[in-house]
Amino acid sequence: MSAAHIIADDAEALAVAAEPAADFRQGATGRDAQRRLPRAELERLSASGLFAAAVRSLDAARGDLTDDSAADASIAVAAAKVMAGEAAVEVGSALFEVSGTRSALGSLGLYRRWRDARTHPLHDPARWEVQHIGRYVLNGTRPPRHGLV
Prior knowledge:
Layout: H1 10-25, H2 28-34, H3 39-46, H4 50-63, H5 67-99, H6 110-123, H7 126-139
Helix pairs in contact: 4-5, 5-6, 5-7
């Protein structure tokens, strides 16, 4: 896997997030009213980071499947899944914090987003994936090849 850029401080994090956030805001009202996903923004954000590393690892394993390439792909996908699950719960929780008490109204259905984000990782526990990632990174122990990591 390629090394990720580490954001040094809050100011850099805000600068990195500013452009995608501005793009995301454009047309948000229309998308929300029509319940459309912000596909262009999602594709742009997924073009880098863990998702891209997972895709590259999967492509490499598909081209030359060995125990090592399967382990690399499994770990890259697990890392992306763990971070996506954590981000989904965090964003869902922040939605309620920012929106105030009215966001909990059943008529809005926002609680479903948080519930779904929280429930999904329970079906495929991230805590196991984190353990496999740690074992692989720290001492080279390959994850099991059973499709769950």
